[in-house]
Amino acid sequence: MSTQASSALVTIRDLGVTLGGKQILQHLTTQIPRGKVTALIGLNGSGKTTLLRAILGEVPYTGRVTFHCGHDHRPGHPERIGYVPQRLLFDTNLPLTVVELVALGMASRPLFLGVGKNMRQRITQLLSRVHAEHLLDSPVAGLSGGELQRVLLALALEPLPELLLLDEPAAGIDFRHQGEFYALITRLNQEHGITVLLVSHDLSVVSNSAHYVLCLRNGQILCEGPPREILSGERIAEIFGEDKAVYAHEAHHL
Ligand SMILES: Nc1ncnc2c1ncn2[C@@H]1O[C@H](COP(=O)(O)OP(=O)(O)O)[C@@H](O)[C@H]1O
Ligand SMILES: [Mg+2]
């Protein structure tokens, strides 16, 4: 798309990532369009999570990742990126309530000091962004997959990011509630203009929610473009190869 070059939020040039002696991403050049929802698709092991981590600066890389945000870029001024990882790094059986978990995430302040009234109010506001304010005093261990994802999303939205990275965000959500979750992502994109890069295997979600699609194969961009172009029959066969059948049932209404 010709308009894309001038409206990229992130440009990625000749990106390479090697981890544990293995080249995982190579010669990867692309752009993340500003203010849009971009879906990142590809087989397991194709490098999707590694690409998100390179954008976050969590893995060493060669090449360039350039942000075109409207704020200070000098060292010490981190990019405003929200991230909901594919796998949780904490035990969800921790004896915490939602308000305590969010307070822990927001302030590096010992919990034995308690969650004050002002903090509670702020967290209630945060949770209301993801329609989860009623979960304030619920134990984290009792949350459904969808509820937990919404709470993690609320944390990723504070402070409101310019770029939101979501790694298979609906994986732990039952099918009935997945639509609600993606509607929420769409609303955040529309109301706040947040640029979203989301990894998803669900091609109906990609077709309904994404403005742009990036396909990875073996650590390289195989193809990119608007969903209607990328999700055509032949393309899908090319992206998913023999695993096509695994994904096809999710794309029945394409
Ligand atoms: N820290 C690491 N050390 C070595 N290999 C890794 C590391 N992280 C990921 N990989 C490998 O890189 C490949 C891509 O992984 P990943 O980015 O998680 O793919 P995806 O998210 O598309 O499933 C996989 O083969 C994975 O085993
Ligand atoms: Mg992954």
From TrEMBL:
Q: Which domain of life is it from?
A: Bacteria
For this UniProt record, the keywords arranged alphabetically read as follows: ATP-binding, Nucleotide-binding, Transport
Q: Pfam families, from UniProt? A: ABC_tran
Indicate yes or no for the key word Transport.
Answer: yes
The record's InterPro entries line, in alphabetical order, gives: AAA+_ATPase, ABC_transporter-like_ATP-bd, ABC_transporter-like_CS, Metal_Ion_Import_ABC, P-loop_NTPase
Q: Which residues form the ABC transporter domain?
A: 10-243
Any one Gene Ontology molecular-function term assigned to this protein's record: ATP binding
Note whether Magnesium occurs among the keywords: no
In its UniProt entry, what is this protein called?
A: Zinc transport system ATP-binding protein
Q: Which organism is it from?
A: uncultured Planctomycetota bacterium
